[in-house]
Amino acid sequence: MGEAFSIHCRRFLMFFLLASLMLLPAAAFAAASVPVHDGTQLAWWVWMILLFGFTFLLGIIAVVAGVGGGVLFVPIVSSFFPFHIDFVRGAGLLVALSGALSAGSPLLRKGLANLKLALSMALIGSASSIAGAMVGLAMPEKTIQLLLGLTIMFISFVMYRSKNSAYPVIDKPDALSKTLQIYGVYFDEHLKKDINWQIHLTPVGLALFILIGFMAGMFGLGAGFANVPVFNLILGVPLRVAVATSVFVLSINDTAAAWVYLHKGAVLPLIAVPSIAGMMIGTKIGAKLLTRIHTNMVRRIVIALLAVAGLRALLKGLGI
Amino acid sequence: MSMKEAVHADRVQLAYASVLSVAATLGMVLIAVGYLLYVFDILPSLASAADIAAHWHLKASELHKAVQVPSGWNWIGELGRGDVLSYASIIYLSGATIFCLAFIVPAFIREKNFIYTVLTILQVCILVFAAAGIVSGGH
Q1: ipTM of the complex
Q2: Domain ranges in chain B?
Q3: How far is the alpha carbon of B103 from chain A, nearest alpha carbon, in Å?
């Protein structure tokens, strides 16, 4: 009976989360397009409450689906809220940055995030994210929407196709990784033992981080979706270390890009703070729910949602 | 530092984790306090939330022509205002990583780790240049 109750609870939780995720954008969209009775738009504080509620749900879903909040935030908020995409990208970077800052410390302490791996990749990534942010803010809105749409649809395709490797075996580390002292050991909770790791193809990884940094800065995305496969599938970093180190890299790359947005006036505290707060609280609750809900199902829905948001941005960019 | 932490993370990494923990917690408190001071009009603002909302559909450069809002470092002389304090808390959050990285440079020097001393100093320089507006299009 206890088990049956637990299954019902899980089903209810899943239904609630997914229904909320589907309904909130619709509510926001309706509110944006329908003037209230006196001919004016909704009061600003209603938007703030909607934004907080929406990012709170995004935070839960992001953790459960195993993606960073930033990649969901920009395409969805720019599609369904009345803010210019400049401010959505600025807020998106700060959402990803604050998430990375608050998660960073425990991940570093446990040895899951690796400082040397992160510093090596972030140096080049942060420089290119500054360039990406400058190019992105100089582009016309329609071009940005078009490119964002294409990028988000590509990301949803990569997420759909990607097969991570939990424990890649690297027999021979490359010379550059040895020079940079990139190797480590972490305690694997699943295997209940210490896992040693080392990497290869470091120059290829560095080259890819130029591209990832540029894209993150240009679109205001967290870019964890790209960091993790490069760490895991190309460099051969164990999946848990790849995910944790990606968080740490975000805190450096997004800091660099965030300053460009701050100097260009593309950060409004009115929009950024409720987004950060909603996402942070949602992420904490999502982490608690992680073991109770069907993550694969949520992940599939998030991929579909990303594809729809990408298509919507693409159509906006094409003026349709 | 626990034995387990020491096995899985080196001393510099643990130092970074400690300073990051404090910086991140302080950042979250500051953005919450700054925002409440702003949206509840506890302190006067350069532009009210309603003014911002009337223009938030505009491109950043156009919004700045229409309303006076803090950007880059142009807010320094206006610290008594709610929107400026809220903005300053975001500035703090964006500077936290620079502070944490600068904190571990002496630790790398003590370890005589030349490569990471240089890499970390270069990283700090890139971020400081971005923060100063030198490589980020500031005014």
Answers
A1: 0.92
A2: 10-132
A3: 14
